[in-house]
């Protein structure tokens, strides 16, 4: 059990000695540091979370996801204070991103607004575009209290390839189609967090919806963004610089025409992440 201030982490399966390491030399102290750093970002987003967490390091293979690096125990979904991490060999920064990603799901489950429904408790096929997309974004973002925007975990986890997510729709239902892969929506959240000065403060509101009327949360998402302070550009007129319409159009310009993730987040590199054309596009050779 590792204690830091009000935080307490019970870690099992990591190793039997103080010098034990996992994931290319990661120590228990580093693992605890990652969890504490995630808490700083939760605070910046106004999210609730348990400061006491049970972390279990085991060798596992989930059905159909043999490369899975970690998860929040679904059997205690109502509590979600058990974090499972795969003992297999992974690159350190990618495991660091996984720790933050899964702990973030825990915070998503904790951050309820009275009178609203938590989006993460809905049909996962309908809600994954936001829940998983923003969790991947969380792994690689610059928050006021902590900067993760150099980890670039999305390069490994998304195989350095950006699918044209708007061809299937931002809130597309999660299917086996690559264009509906919810984690790929992280790139759209990079645009929002870069261009909306109050994105951190509205994130909790995006998590809470009217599930009966808005099962994917997209209507709430659009309403919140239309009222946010964003600067997506005046390409649809000065009155729409902060609108979801302008955001979607700029995203297409950046990813289809410029094929440049740097235009969504200035800290990224165009050469590192290749955006693919739509199925119906024919481009001349670059």
Give the SSE map:
Elements: E1 2-4, E2 7-12, H1 28-45, E3 52-58, E4 70-72, E5 82-86, H2 92-110, E6 117-118, H3 124-138, H4 153-157, E7 161-162, H5 186-195, H6 199-207, E8 208-209, H7 218-226, H8 244-257, E9 274-275
Parallel strand pairs: 2-3, 3-5, 7-9
Antiparallel strand pairs: 1-2, 4-5, 6-8
Helix pairs in contact: 1-2, 2-3, 3-5, 6-7
Keywords:
single chain, 286 residues, globular, two-stranded antiparallel ribbon, 5-stranded mixed beta sheet
**Strand arrangement, major sheet:** 1-2-3-5-4
Fraction in beta strands: 5-15%
- The level of helicity is 25-40%
The average pLDDT is 91
* Rg from Cα: 19 Å
Overall outline: globular
Number of helices, counting only DSSP H or I runs of 4 residues or more: 8
Taking the alpha carbons of the first and last residues, their distance comes to: 55 Å
- Residue windows where pLDDT falls under 50 for at least 5 positions: 282-286
- Total strands: the figure is 9
Major β-sheet annotation: 5 strands, mixed
N-to-C SSE string, H for helix and E for strand: EEHEEEHEHHEHHEHHE
The helix/strand class is: alpha/beta
Question: Would you summarize the structure shown here?
Answer:
By secondary structure, the chain is of the alpha/beta class. It is built from eight helices and nine strands.
Structure description:
This protein has 286 residues and is of the alpha/beta class. The chain is built from eight helices and nine strands. The strands form three sheets. Strands 1-2-3-5-4 form a five-stranded mixed β-sheet, with helices on one face. Helix 3 packs across helix 5 and helix 6 runs antiparallel to helix 7. The longest helix has 19 residues.
């Amino acid at each position: 059990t590792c204690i830091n201030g009000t935080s307490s982490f019970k870690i099992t399966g990591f190793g039997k000695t103080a010098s034990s390491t996992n994931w290319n030399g990661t120590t228990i102290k580093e693992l605890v540091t990652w969890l504490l750093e995630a808490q700083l970002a939760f605070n910046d987003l106004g999210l609730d979370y348990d400061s006491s967490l049970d972390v279990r390091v085991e060798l596992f293979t989930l059905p159909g996801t043999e490369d899975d690096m970690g998860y929040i125990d679904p059997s205690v979904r109502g509590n979600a204070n058990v974090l499972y991490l795969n003992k297999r060999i992974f690159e350190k920064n990618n495991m660091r991103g996984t720790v933050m990603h899964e702990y973030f799901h825990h915070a998503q489950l904790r951050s309820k607004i009275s009178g609203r429904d938590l989006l993460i408790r809905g049909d996962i096929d309908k809600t994954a575009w936001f829940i998983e997309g923003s969790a991947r974004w969380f792994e690689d973002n610059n928050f006021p209290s902590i900067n993760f925007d150099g980890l670039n975990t999305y390069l490994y986890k998304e195989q350095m390839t950006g699918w044209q997510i708007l061809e299937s729709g931002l809130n597309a239902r999660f299917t086996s189609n690559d264009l509906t892969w919810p984690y790929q929506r992280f790139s759209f959240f990079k645009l929002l967090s870069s261009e909306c000065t109050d994105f951190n403060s509205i994130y909790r509101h995006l998590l809470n919806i009217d599930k009966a009327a808005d099962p994917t949360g997209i209507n709430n998402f659009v309403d919140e963004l239309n009222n946010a302070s964003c600067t997506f550009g005046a390409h649809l007129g000065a009155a729409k610089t902060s609108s979801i319409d302008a955001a979607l159009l700029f995203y297409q310009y950046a990813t289809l025409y410029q094929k440049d993730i740097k235009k969504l987040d200035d800290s990224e590199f165009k050469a590192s992440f290749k955006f693919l054309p739509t199925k119906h596009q024919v481009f001349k050779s670059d």
